[in-house]
Amino acid sequence: MTLMDAVLFFPVAILIALTPGPNNFCALNNGIRQGVITAVTATTGRAVAYTIFLTVSAIGLGAMLLASETAFTLLKWAGAAYLFYLGIKTWRSTEFSGLAEEGNGAARKRSVWRLMLQEFLVGISNPKAILLFAAIFPQFIDAAKPATEQFVWLGATYLLAEYSASVVYALFGRQISRFVKTSRGVARLNKTTGGFFIGAGGMLMTAHA
Predict the structure, then answer these.
(1) Please, what sign has the CA dihedral across residues 175, 181, 183, 188?
(2) What are 60-67's contacts with CB under 8 Å, separation 24+?
(3) What is the pTM of this model?
(4) Strand, helix or coil for residue 121
(5) For residue 34, how far is the Cα from the chain centroid?
(6) What is the dihedral of CA 145, 148, 154, 156, to 10 degrees?
(7) Nearest CA to 119 among 50, 193, 206, 32?
């Protein structure tokens, strides 16, 4: 696979990355509450999770996981439970921007790391990501060429697409935040974003290998 092949794959990767899902809801939520830069920085947690899945898929373990109904189901339920937790926590929250209240540099760093961890946990517990890398990526692999190098190109291209999607969702979230002026607006926003996470958890429960 050459750089040109990766460039040609990028539009496909963008379409997949922009699809609404748990991690993109995280970027939207973080964009609303913390701003675009923080939201995109937190996407690194997602990228780490997806890099693990890419490595697993490249050595063939992804297909084994997909073939194991028990493993797939356990991962699915763990992911759904975490999304329900995020949804309920956000729904019940009365805060709007944690960074605005924390105020100092150390607290700001802790908040970013916390959001990165959140993105990582959402990404690593999403079996649909395994399905993407283990089932879809091989369709773009040329069997006559070294598979590892091709996985690296495809993976790097897809991670770039994920960062691009994060920017889009974070910018959208930032625009939404401009309309929140009252405590009632904050409550409605929290319930809406919390509902997104709960809905994503419900959708994840219906996933099949």
Answers:
(1) negative
(2) 62/130, 62/133, 62/134, 63/134, 63/135, 65/130, 65/134, 66/130, 66/131, 66/134, 66/135, 66/209, 67/209
(3) 0.78
(4) helix
(5) 16
(6) -140
(7) 50
To which residue do tokens 């509902």 refer? 195
Kindly report, residue by residue over 69-113, the tens digit of the pLDDT: 676 677 778 878 878 888 888 788 766 554 444 445 555 555 899
Give CA–CA dist 173/29, Å, rounded: 6
Locate 94 and state its tokens. Answer: 């009365």
Tokens linked to 143: 């069997």
The answer to whether the beta carbons of residues 54 and 155 sit under 8 Å apart is yes
Measured CA distances, 55 to 29, 58, 147, 181 (Å): 29, 5, 12, 45
For 16-46, b where at least 16 C-beta lie within 10 A, e where not — what string? ebeeebbbbbbbbbbbbbbbbebbbbbbbbb
Q: What angle do CA 98, 111, 39 make, to 5 degrees?
A: 85
Q: Which pair of tokens denotes residue 45?
A: 């947690």
